[in-house]
């Protein structure tokens, strides 16, 4: 069973996504801040990370993704954000600034979430 770490400060999104992904057979750990995620990653190695860009700080997710990439985590990271809807700024691309394997703009439909997770879990 593949393990997924979800880090997002939107508790309703975490709860709904966890239920959806567990229903598809994934083991899901949800955390609502980067500090707890850093502690979790000391002892665990998820197969995939779903990571919100903006949490307590506007760049929490980006900073955490950079830290993961500089460290030992080589698995896929899917970045999530609704920031484009609010600011008009388009992230949408994974590159040196946004070190991820994929990007999803919130709100995310259940079908799209499952498709993206399946795609990246099957890559590993």
Key attributes of the depicted protein:
124 residues, alpha/beta, single chain, Rossmann fold, 5-stranded parallel beta sheet
**Overall mean confidence score, pLDDT:** 90
CATH architecture: 3-Layer(aba) Sandwich
**Secondary-structure content class:** alpha/beta
Portion in beta strands: 15-25%
Discrete helix count: 5
The amount of helix comes to 40-55%
Helix/strand order: EHEHEHEHEH
Radius of gyration: 13 Å
For this entry, what is the oligomeric state of its chains?
A: single chain
Distance between the termini: 13 Å
User: Reading side by side through the largest sheet, how are the strands ordered?
Assistant: 2-1-3-4-5
Overall tally of structural domains:
1
Unreliable stretches covering 5 or more consecutive residues = none
Which fold name corresponds to the CATH topology?
Rossmann fold
Largest sheet: 5 strands, parallel
Which shape, going by the Cα principal axes? globular
Describe, in plain words, how this protein is organized in 3D.
The chain has a single domain, classed as Rossmann fold (3-Layer(aba) Sandwich), CATH 3.40.50. It has 5 helices and 5 strands. It has helices at 11-23, 34-43, 60-70, 83-87, 110-123; strands spanning 3-7, 27-31, 48-52, 77-81, 102-105. It is an alpha/beta fold and 124 residues long. Strands 2-1-3-4-5 form a 5-stranded parallel β-sheet, sandwiched between helices. It is globular. Strand 4 (77-81), helix 4 (83-87) and strand 5 (102-105) form a beta-alpha-beta unit. The model has no long low-confidence stretch (mean pLDDT 90).
